């Protein structure tokens, strides 16, 4: 590549290229050069403690027999809050539309409380805490901001939410919110207004606090904590908070914690966070491979609503083998792993009409820049709980219909990691340092054909990462299939399954 072109592509999100056949495609940039001789993985420092659980020498399925305790923090049944949601929606619908959360709140009307524990755990087995990605045979995959937009209707743009920096414009002391009724049902009963009365600001904020606690971030205490007040108040005041990035960062946090807990002697307990989002995303990518079906006839035009009806209802420890086998069958990247770039997508018009990157309109440039550009995302409602993550869509180019090149890190591990907490509250200074304002990216729309191609350099890079990882998965799956465990009665006996190392 000529030096002039290379300099341009070093800041471009969409570097186009042509094949000998004359077909035009595009990489997800920026393009920083693809060294053919040195293809070491600078993105993945060798830290054995962050390897996915599937690399473990021993896998004891008896640790995963009691899934009720493991996933007790899933959203409650819709019947508990449906009456309150309907009452508040009648008064606040247009405010929700203006704030950009109307479609998202509709999801709470559906069966978010249903989950398939074996599907969730099987996926978590493949989670890498270093890259925040699932290691499938074809490469890294993970929910992106495009997936979140399709599932929830949330835009990838908006104001960052900085814990402890948003002002309390409506004093919490002036509201009628009762803090001695924190459990979900008690909180609903204490704050739902009479049918013939108007929804007050206090009731609206209380509802948003409940919704954020129970249906969005799924707190481990199964209660409505006070620290959601500031975010609920900001939404009540119609502030354009970028909930999609806050939600994705929270998913990273709970997947990191879930993956780490798999290695504990007693196994995972009370996994919290938006794992319902993982369930819906898995439903989307497994829909055809596992022949998941439903009779979805709802008037809610949102992918997330449809996906809730695909969650398998039959739970069995034997399903571990089925789901792991399904993951391992992704030896090549297929359109199953990019379920939301199809032309039949359900969802809000701003996304449904602009969900294919090769047809970017002027009005959708900002949206696609949010989907495709590097960023820093944060989770946590309190300063002491802040965790910072890099959003690196260049790892998942093919999920957008773009070609995959060797991925480069947003920052080296020493500069950006989830353990970086902002003790002084100076978030802007930290973000400026990480995002390197002298390295600003640009999105120039161009016409090209979608493709799941990868560069040779990417293949060398990927193979090197797995060069010493060899596993006999036929034997592993056979042991899973012959597992004596029963999901209905819990484990009958402890069974430890020796696992060698993986190669794809």
From TrEMBL:
Residues annotated as domain Aminotransferase-like plant mobile: 100-462
GO biological process: meristem maintenance
Pfam families associated with the record: PMD
Superkingdom of the organism of origin: Eukaryota
UniProt xrefs under InterPro entries: AminoTfrase-like_pln_mobile, MAIN-like
Name of the protein: Aminotransferase-like plant mobile domain-containing protein
UniProt organism field: Cajanus cajan (Pigeon pea)
